[in-house]
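## retry 2 of 3
previous attempt timed out at serialization; input unchanged, resubmitting
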Amino acid sequence: MSAAIKATYGPQVLSDVGAFGGLVAIKQLQEMDAPVLVASTDGVGTKTMVAARVSRWDTIGHDIVNHCLNDILVQGARPLFMLDYVASAKLDPRQIAAVVTGVAQACQEAGIALLGG
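## retry succeeded, writing output
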């Protein structure tokens, strides 16, 4: 899981895995005339029931990243990073690692950093 997360890092990431939050340099905003940050958060909802039924957890990681990215993109903004959040009545380390690895893979495909959560 850690390697998947670190694979999303570019030179703008100033923190490391495990900080429950992340640091990202935003120097590129200085080059803009009127910079605006757009943020989004979402949940995968009932897709977790599908993931449980087929015992495949990485796909919901991709789903949540793409939900949030779409919400940002339709406003004309460029996504910079993602923060993850996992809530579960019972933590299964393999399932959580699969979800977070899916999030990291989707972030890497989108060219954004997974900073933490």
